[in-house]
Amino acid sequence: MKTFTVMVTRVCTILFASSISTFxxxxxxxxxxxxxxxMKTLQQIEPRIDLQNAxxxxxDTTNANYEFIIIKPGSYYLSANLGVIKANGIQIGVAGVxxxxxxxxxxxxxxxxxxxxxxxxxSHRANxxxxxxxNFTTGVFAVGSAALATSLRDLAVTGxxxxxxxxxxxxxxxxxxxxxxxxxxxxxxxxxxxxxxNAFANQGPSGLSVxxxxxxxxxxxxxxxxxxxxxxxxxxxxxxxxxxxxxTTYGIFVGSGCTLINCAAxxxxxxxGISASxxxxxxxxxxxxxxxxxxxxxxxxxxxxxCSAYGNTSAATASAGFETLSGCALINCSARNNTSTAAxxxxxxxxxxxxxxxxxxxxxxxxxNKGDGIRVSGGCIVRQNSCDTNGNNGDGADIxxxxxxxxxxxxxxVGGDRGIEVSGIHNLITGNSAGSTTIDYVIAADNRYGPILxxxxxxxxxxxxxxxxxxxxxxxxWANFSY
Length: 483
What we know:
By secondary structure, the protein is mainly β. 5% of the residues lie in helices and 43% in strands. The strands form 3 sheets. It has a 34-stranded parallel β-sheet that branches. It has an 18-stranded mixed β-sheet, with no helix packed on it. It has a two-stranded parallel ribbon with strand order 34-38.
């Protein structure tokens, strides 16, 4: 009994000691540094300068010609609408400035003219965004083309009678709108990029204009009155751009060596839907329902692929869906329902495709045009095209060959006033088929052609099986057929 009591006493002593060790407190003197402030300063929260409350070291407000002149690099913003009564609004006078209009408006409230926002020649890398500019001579103006790498985003400019937006070389203009300006819409100098912009209801020479080596993507020009909807220099790329309902000489005009992809000119009133200078390429483009002389008109050495000219009309004595100078190529293109309101209908009024010498037309369709479907000069190749009912309500041939030494082969002709008409000399006509035209072949003297066989009166038996006799009545490899 005594032994048991001693053992219990020892166990309790051990447990008690263990308990004290477990809950023992260490050094209660703080070992960390004293507390420091955790609140951010106003400058840390908004690390920008309020333009309308800026210090004199950053912004000059004493100049008689400008409401504000930014003289120190940095990031600025508007805190309220800016009503301009001086000659000009804001001048960016130093490189490396960002100006956020912060959703506010810079507008003329007294007087007239001037620049809403001006970027001086050496103020490179200016970044202006998010707001409205209205009622100046020029809304946003980069002096000359010297102000490099300007970035303009999410701006709306209106009521400017000179230019809504004018940017220098290397500019980036994105998601901007120029609307209802008595002057030009958007202009940019060499090597600029313009994306998702819209020029609407402006009245200057150009709705949207860029210089050499620039890129336009997903831009639109609507209801513009002037010379050009879109105007571009040499080496420019236009992708997914549209001009519509404009009253201009040119819907789209580009210089030499340009590339147009997925561009459209629709419902414009002028002379040209889309016009390109030498060596340009056009892919998946369309000219639709324009009132003017040509849906497409290009200079020498241009290439069309998968393009369409549909429903264009003109009062001129010579008009066409496609019109080219020499050395061009049209591959897999379509010209349909191009027509004319000229008082006298002839082969040149409302043509489908009219090309200069030494050109190639292959795999194209020309149908229901008022004049000639395909019209070529000398030295051309016209191969594997489909023509249907040209001379529609007018006068024309499905294929009309002028000049000498063109090769016309493997085309299919249906309907029309005349099927294949060859007015020139020393041309080669082989392997074509024509049917249901008023007259299938009209070929002048001194041309060369395979035999022309009339199969319309040749009776044939029906076929149901894997074998049938030859019904062409010839084995000549270059034979032409009427059927």
